Amino acid sequence: MKKNDVELFEIAKKLRGLQTVSTIAKTLKIKRRTAINYAWKLRKAGYLTSTGGGKNIKLYRISPLKLKKREGYSIYGLINKYSRIKLNTTEDYIIHSEKEPSPEEILVRAIASREFRLMLASFELYNKIKSWSRLKKFSEKYHIGRNVGALYDVTKIFIRVKRMDERTRKALLKINEQLQLFKIIGTELKERIECYVIGGSAMMFYGAKEDTKDVDLVFLKKNDLEKVKEILEKINFKDKKELVKIFRRYEDKKNRPIMMVGKEGERIDLFFKEIITFEMSDTIVNRIAETHEFSNLIIKVVSPEDIILLKCATEREKDRFDALSLMEKFDIKWNIIIDEAVNQTKLESYLFPVYLYDFLEELKEDFKAEIPRDVLRKIRKISEDLLEERLRKKKRKEK
Q1: Which stretches within the chain are classed as H helix?
Q2: Beta strand 214-219 with 267-272: parallel, antiparallel or unpaired?
Q3: Rounded Cα–Cα distance for residues 138 and 130 (Å)
Q4: Domain 3-62 classified CATH 1.10.10.10?
Q5: Out of 55, 129, 215, 361, which residue is the most buried by the measure of CB atoms under 10 Å away?
């Protein structure tokens, strides 16, 4: 180690911790100008990093162990970039990202921190928003839709702020109502329970749908379903005995869903393993795209492809529009849909490919969905082969 390096190392040891120019000068018993010069040398050698500056006091973090530059972006530095309220801090809150986070992500992260100074300084980020839908997406990720909307209302009191579109505002409130319900259930549960969210609720997690009249949950353990049902009854949900005609051939299905209805008409459908003509297979479980924890309630979101597959079990026109929305928003992997259609036949849902073909053909012809013809041909061939096999078995039995 060279003489100058040894000297800087010894100085870094002596100044270890947080310093200012004044405390450096006092500790080393040197003039202020010399202290600034030492700070510059320590930074160059890798012993010093700094925060603050401008109208605020600059803080120096000094260590004899050379400080490695952290990968990512400091949220304080990002807030300072956009806000007139400048922040000094002795802590690092790093957003790990190859690209600089967008104002939408910075704002949501600041609100999620629940740190008053960060939230106050983030007011001006509402005027930097370029995509309200992106803001909604990050709000959903951190489960703080209502907080983002509430801070927006507070911000309008103090500064002029660009108008949030009404669709985003409503969506933030709707997703938060659903999340709040999950939080209540999770808090009331005595042990951890896993379930799978499908349909419109799953689409809301993906930002592909603004609201839904019902929540669909699938359980792989009957006991888990019963425990959630008990909690719903405690919070004034009623078991709707008369099944609403939504699902194809639901009259003949023994494993009917339990429909719980709240005071304001909100509905939660509880399924056990099967969703009428569809079964929760291991392959669907392995494709789970997102997991969200609400205390003891673990919500797993099925993939966009599986949402489309499940939609074909219904007779509602709005489910056709939902499927269209997913096809437009996501790069649908059609091989997954074809493979799962075949897989469902192995699980005794032998007619499922027939229902799927009818559903996709209708979307293609009547709703002009961009479904590759080759996909329809393959599913049709699977359907025809299955029907022929059923016919052959029936003839053999008759003989």
Answers
A1: 3-14, 21-28, 32-45, 75-82, 103-113, 116-121, 132-141, 145-158, 166-188, 199-206, 222-234, 282-286, 304-311, 317-329, 334-346, 352-366, 373-398
A2: parallel
A3: 13
A4: yes
A5: 215
| Banded model confidence at residue 91, pLDDT cuts 50, 70, 90 | low
Q: Which two tokens stand for residue 332?
A: 């649908």
Instruction: Report the DSSP pairing between strands 94-95 and 59-62.
Output: unpaired
- Write out the residue limits of the CATH 1.10.10.10 domain(s) in the chain: 3-62
Fold classification of 174-398 (topology level): Beta Polymerase; domain 2 (3.30.460)
**Tokens of residue 50, six digits:** 């700094």
What are phi and psi for residue 112, nearest 5 degrees?
A: -65, -25
What residues contact 386, with CB distance under 8 A and at least 6 apart?
345, 350, 351, 353, 354
Residues 382/387/389/390 CA torsion (nearest 10 deg): 140
Q: Which two tokens stand for residue 180?
A: 């709040």
Token pair, residue 212, equals 């839904």
pLDDT digits (tens, 9 = 90+) for 163-192: 888 777 766 656 667 888 899 999 999 999
Q: In the numeric block, which tokens belong to residue 10? A: 């010894």
Delimiting residues of CATH 3.30.460.40 domain(s) in the chain: 174-398
CB 360 within 8 A of CB 312: yes
In this predicted model, what pLDDT tens digit does every residue of 234-281 receive, in sequence order?
999 999 876 555 554 444 455 678 999 988 778 899 999 988 778 899
Six-digit token string for 300: 């797993």
